[in-house]
Write a structure and sequence with these properties.
The protein has one domain. The chain has 5 helices and 22 strands. Strands 1-2-3-17-16-19-13-14 form an 8-stranded antiparallel β-sheet. It has a 5-stranded antiparallel β-sheet with strand order 4-22-5-20-21, with helices on one face. The chain is globular and about 40 Å long. The N and C termini lie far apart (56 Å).
């Protein structure tokens, strides 16, 4: 019996390892099977990649604005949220006011911004937890109460990948924060460290097949970058902080694993 139990445990470990290497990238689990990390050197830049299984981990947006505070570092926001992972989110103005739609836990924290080339990562919790990237036009077509019912939403831009294909972008180079959808229940959080990354190179890398050294993204969008790029991980298998140049008004956070519970609809 003990031998059989050891064999079953060994098989489970092998399955977890295979899942962590999905797509040809050697991710390592950092919080069970639902969260995995990879530091990938590429052309003078380290791509910090966090793969999230949405069937296990909720996504929310942490708002820095409270008691006169306008901004905070991503590690602060992650700790305050009890999160395992946090990355910076929206663009913001000179007064640290967020620019673009922000929703967390069925509550709209900032309204939709009418910028045609922006899009939003949207996470829904209706029966199953799933994610998609919606353009500004698609978001504008939704009733306001539907937008407010999202479990999480962060509007930014530009999109990098649509339908598994890279999009043609304005040539600009900077540190990058982005999100990539592998499928409706799995996403990658991306933060770069080192040499600046040109926008079209990022899009091509995100869209390329794993066999060609890419990330196999079905869809993708950039969040704010440059000095805003920050990543914080506080997981059983990894402690890591990529610091930015200043505070930000919000962060996308990955919470400890929980079963899906429907997000209450705003009144």
């Amino acid at each position: 019996m003990r031998g059989r139990a050891r064999a079953l445990l060994g098989a489970a470990a092998l399955l977890a390892a295979a899942q962590a290497r999905a797509g040809g990238l050697d991710f390592r689990p950092i919080a069970g099977d639902g969260l995995a990390y990879l530091a990938l050197p590429r052309q003078g830049t380290v791509y910090h990649l966090v793969r999230v299984d949405l069937t296990r981990h909720p996504i929310r947006v942490a708002d820095a604005r409270r008691e006169g505070r306008r901004a905070a570092t991503v590690d602060q926001l992650g700790r305050e949220s009890g999160a395992l992972v946090a990355v910076n989110g929206t663009f913001f103005d000179e007064n640290y006011r967020p620019l673009g739609l922000v929703v967390s836990g069925g509550r709209e924290l900032n309204p939709l911004r009418s910028v045609s080339w922006w899009a939003a990562l949207v996470v829904r919790e209706s029966g199953t937890r799933s994610a998609e990237i919606l353009t500004t036009a698609q978001l504008a077509e939704l009733p306001a109460e539907d937008r407010s019912s999202f479990a999480a939403a962060v509007q930014s831009g530009p999109r990098t990948v649509a339908g598994g294909k890279p999009l043609a972008l304005k040539e600009q180079s900077a540190s990058r924060t982005a999100v990539c959808l592998l499928d409706p229940t799995h996403l990658l959080l991306i933060a770069t460290d080192g040499a600046a990354v040109e926008s079209n190179e990022l899009a091509a890398f995100m869209a390329a097949a794993s066999g060609q050294g890419g990330l196999d993204c079905e869809a993708g969008v950039m969040f704010d970058g440059g000095p805003s790029t920050q990543l914080w991980i506080h997981a059983p298998g990894l402690e890591f902080t990529l610091r930015g140049g200043w505070g930000v008004p919000n962060a996308l956070v990955v919470l400890p694993a929980t079963p899906v519970e429907p997000v209450p609809r705003s009144e």
